[in-house]
Amino acid sequence: MRELSVVEISQVDGGTAAGDIVMGAAGAWASTVTGAAIGSVVPGVGTVVGAAAGFTLGVAIAVGYSLATN
């Protein structure tokens, strides 16, 4: 038994750039909703600021993941 190489794994993992984009969008949306919920504790602009921070975090995670895996 031997370890698989990166090339061998990438040939069968089924992951595509389209999948990375969809996963990134889902992560950004989840972060946005979570940020909005946490931000709603602060009256006024808290929800908007929380959603913006959550979206930024979600996009950063998606970009980092995409760069690390491609």
N-to-C order of helices and strands: HHH
Alpha-beta classification: mainly alpha
- SS summary, helix count: 3
Please estimate the helix content.
over 70%
Rg computed from alpha carbons, rounded to a whole number of angstroms: 17 Å
What's the pLDDT, averaged over the residues?
83
End-to-end separation in angstroms reads 27 Å
Q: Which residue ranges are poorly predicted, with pLDDT under 50 across at least 5 consecutive positions?
A: none
The main sheet comes to:
none
Label the overall shape.
Answer: rod-shaped
**% residues in beta strands:** under 5%
Number of domains: 1
Number of strands: 0
Description:
- With 70 residues, this protein is an all-alpha fold.
- It has one domain.
- Helix content is 77%, strand content 0%.
- The chain has helices spanning 6-12, 17-39, 46-69.
- The longest helix has 24 residues, at 46-69.
- It is rod-shaped, with a radius of gyration of 17 Å.
